[in-house]
């Protein structure tokens, strides 16, 4: 039977359309016959996830998104079908999340669990809605933004208070204070100049002082032997003092002081002769009269020696008047 050209063209067109659909589905990651390893995940927000987007575990691509469809008309749950490249042991407590990629398309990241039971073909993996990078940054910046707004508001109030406080008189005082600060700064500059002059290596006061210190140090170094000898003598003296019977000497000195105090006490009392002489006025008067009488007797003996001599070769015994008072020692 002869086939017409129209039939051939129609058949080729149908084959071409079929191949186009299959190729498009293959490029999009779809399979018309649902062959391979499939798992599913439910999300409330797919963040722009598209069919054929990659699925990763620890940075390794294990498959692609094969299909995205809503579970109900309210769009509360969106089912994402994942086709794995091959059979993988994925623990049933693993969690799938959608990660934003600022430089490309979103992708699914599966965080492996620790269970020893693995997902089977067609199972649904637990999922979580993670914040995107910009959302996380926004959430972190929100408290800071609120604090910044509050700070700016307080700053505005502070500036208003400052403007209300700074009347013309206060502004004048502030200008005077700034002028004083300028004067102080000028004085500090002059002091710095003076300090630099002091710190000059050749003619500075500190340099001369250091020269004097060096000279003194040099003299001390030259007198090192004498200083050592002096220290040795001091050490010897200290050792002699430490070996001396200071305790006994102090005890003896204390005993001498006690004896002296006893003597002084006896002198102050009327028990002894010396105490009576010092404290008894009558005894003093008697001693004074005795001394006066002795002086009168000596003066009379000197004035009338014949009166007291019982023998005489020529002449007779002097019987003149007796002295009743000592002679004046200034007269012959």
Task: Summarize the amount of helix as a percent range.
Answer: 40-55%
Q: Strand order, biggest sheet?
A: 5-6-2-3-4-1-7
Determine the structural class based on helices, strands and strand pairing: alpha/beta
Radius of gyration: 66 Å
Could you give the order of the helices and strands?
A: HEEEEEEEHHHHHHH
Give the oligomer, counting copies of the same chain as homo and different chains as hetero: single chain
Task: Note poorly predicted spans.
Answer: none
Outline:
This protein is of the alpha/beta class.
Task: Give an account of the 3D structure.
This protein is of the alpha/beta class and 332 residues long. Among the domains are: 33 residues; 97 residues; 30 residues. Helix content is 54%, strand content 12%. It is built from eight helices and seven strands. The chain has a seven-stranded mixed beta sheet, with no helix packed on it. The longest helix is centred in the middle third of the chain and has 33 residues. The mean pLDDT is 78.
